Every structure is written in C-alpha cells, then in structure tokens.
Please model this.
Amino acid sequence: MKKIFCIGELLIDFVAENQGSDLRKASVFTKKPGGAPANVACAISRLGGSSTFIGCIGDDPFGNFLEQILVENEVDTRHLQKTDTFTTLAFVSIAENGERDFVFSRGADRELKYLPKIKSEFKGNMLHLGAATALLGGPLESAYGHYFFDGLTERAFISFDPNFRQDLWKRKEEAFIKKCIPFIEKSHLCKFSLEEAQLLSGKEDLMEACTVLHNLGTEAIVITLGKEGTYLSTGTRHGIIPSIAVEAVDTTGAGDAFIGCLLYLLSALEDPSEVMGNFEFLMEMVRTANAAGALTTTQFGAIPSLPNQDDLKAALK
Ligand code: ADP
Model:
C-alpha cells in the first residue's frame, strides 16, 4: 500500500451557533478542527490507509488540540511543524440559505517550511495537494510548490484539489486561476467542485470544461456534484456516477471524504497513474468514494462522521 502525503493547512473553525449569517451578532462559537488536507488525511487513515500530514500549527493549546486529532486518527504526524505564531483560526457563521459571514485570522499554517529531506519519502508514493490556503502567499506557498516539484521528480502520483474559497479570493479570482494552472498541468488526478471546474476552465458546460482542463494536462477529472454524485472524465469518456441516497444533515467534509476514499483505493494499486485513462475501472472506485462522501453528510462535523470500512460496506450492500 502506498503512503499518501497530504499537504496544506490544519486550523480551527469557530462556527457560530444560531446566528444566521451575521458574525457581529454571534456570541457562541463551537471549536472544530478544520483544513481540507487534514480532513483528507483522516479520511484515508479511517479507511485503513497510510496517510502523512505535512502542515504547520502554532505551539499553543489550539495547535495541541489539532495535533491530538491527527494522532487519534492515526495520521502520521512526523512532518507536522510547529511555530511560535498562533494557530490559524477561521470564524464562520452560516445562515440556513447557506450564506456565510467569514473572518479569517491567518497564523501558523502560513509558516510551513520546505524540508528537502522529505523528498526521498515521496518516491513511489502519492501526494495530495488540497490546500485552501496554500496559494495565498507566504512560506507555505513556496513550500507547497517545492513539495509539488519534489513529488514530480520522484515520480509520485499527484492529486490536486484547488479548494477555492470565495471568501479568501474576492476580486482576485484571476490570480487564483493562474496559480492553479501548473498543478492542473502536471497532476494525474484533479478533483473539482462544479464552481471550480467552471471558474478554472471558463466554461459553463461540464464536458467543455473538462476538455479545457484535460488540454492543460491532467489525466483524470472528478467533479463532485453533491447528492447528484460525481462527474468523471478520463478525456475519452465521461459521465455522472450516481451517489447513494442519504438523509444529509451537514455537508462539511463530504468532498474531503470523497477524495480521501478515492486516493485510499488507488493507493492499493502498483501504479495508480496507469488507470487514469480507464473509465470503467475508475467508475467503480468513484462509486465507492461517493458513498464515503454521502455517509459524511449524515452526521455533524467533518472528521467525526468519516466512514470506516464497515460503514462503507454496509452502505454499498
Ligand atoms: P464538495 O465538498 O467537494 O463540494 P460534495 O458536497 O459535492 O463535495 O460531496 C462530495 C461527494 O459526496 C459527492 O460527489 C457525492 O458523491 C457525495 N455526496 C455529497 N452530498 C450528498 C448527498 N446529500 N447525498 C448523497 N451523496 C452526497
């Protein structure tokens, strides 16, 4: 089984309770672990895979809390870095219609250093570049680029999820697109939301969007569509792979559970890059990954609701 290195941010989400979308009025916040790459690392290990998290937290109680979550979930934390800068905090209030009020207090995640010694561990393994904050500048952006380059030179399998957050890129969407292009060019697998696929390709239609994105270089594309399932494109073939029916209560982390499960399944192969053009083969994996995403929506919070093998088997019966 290959190791999967998940690179990017680990932070605290303070979610306002019962306050509509107005943070000014919010008085009660619930502390939750956040950060897409860390969720993906937990999703992989929950299923029995081997995941390593590369990111930076503050040497403070919030950072210790986050480290403990990774350890409890059996994620390898050897490359978790700590700094004197405070742990990154995001404050969010979500109204019933999904409208968000968002304040971001960026701290330690930005400070991730590039450590050349990790490079040799990438050989024959897999990298998941799925940070929402990695392209926002600072040492993290530089380290992220270096780790990506090291993954390429060590011939690791590369998965990319741009994790576009509108709150973080207001009026800078063009810069975001430009920064994503090198990753789309060189990744074996890209995971997008519908909004991301449209933004990055400049096309509304999914098939046209995939043509643009494949032409940039990526071999396989998965576009997650919530309860509709996932659009899979291998270039020559494409189609929607339906999800299972569930009673969704909180969709946070569904995309991370989905890509975590897909990467876990790919990590069992001798050479995952070889199947990127094989629609039939990937379709079966996407079907299973859809179930992982769906199950994650049936409970509150991202990490607590990630499925294990038994949950998945029961859901796919
Ligand atoms: P993202 O977090 O990337 O926006 P989605 O919310 O689209 O991800 O969810 C990821 C995957 O999880 C979907 O492609 C789908 O297979 C599954 N999923 C998500 N929400 C539901 C739902 N309500 N019912 C069934 N499956 C779901």
Remarks:
- The longest strand covers residues 50-58.
